Amino acid sequence: MIAVRTMRQQDVEEVATLEREIFSQPWSTAGFLDALKLDNTVFLAAEEHGHIVGYIGMYLSAEEGEITNVAVAPRERCRGIGGMLLDEIKKEAGVHSVEKIVLEVRRSNDSAIRLYERSGFTIRGIRKGFYEFPKEDAYIMIYGQ
Questions:
Q1: Of 10, 27, 77, 99, which is most buried, counting CB atoms within 10 Å of its CB?
Q2: What domain count does the chain have?
């Protein structure tokens, strides 16, 4: 059974390993540790059988949240884990009086775009050349106002 919970310091090595597996410009272990220490962040981990199978992070600023990372282990995809993480981060947003959540996604990442749309996000704009390795535009997607 998958449980979504607050990310802990002891999760960071496993999270950073997963991050390197998935992203062309991954966050470092130190980056995750630094983010966990901040008062204006929410990082959640999806765990099954003692292993991290996904995670999500969000920075909080007044009434807005910015999702920084959403990841599900490639071998665990298509099990609803991404949707669970988004549902939980939206609940956390409510706890922190966040009215709008913003994220960027590669224009070519059709599966992620569909996931975000199913979770209530809509495309509101484009950031030209946002991603490197490979260079690509990002859609700006928003949940809320």
A1: 27
A2: 1
Residue 27 in tokens = 């966050």
35-74: per-residue pLDDT in tens? 999 999 999 999 999 999 999 999 999 899 999 999 999 9
Give the SS3 label for residue 86: helix
Q: Which of 11, 8, 87 is nearest to 52 (CA)?
A: 11
CATH number of the domain encompassing residue 46: 3.40.630.30
| Residue at 137 is within a domain | no
Helical packing angle, 81-95 and 110-118, nearest 10°: 50
pLDDT of residue 104: 97
Please check whether residue 27 is in contact with residue 15, taking contact to mean a CB–CB distance below 8 angstroms.
no
**CA gap 112, 96 in Å, rounded:** 25
Residue 134 lies in a domain: no
Residue 134 DSSP class:
T
Structural domain boundaries, residue 37: 3-103
Q: What is the pLDDT of residues 110-137, one digit of tens each?
A: 999 999 999 999 999 999 999 988 999 9
Reported confidence tier of residue 9, pLDDT bands at 50, 70, 90: very high
In a domain, 26, yes or no: yes
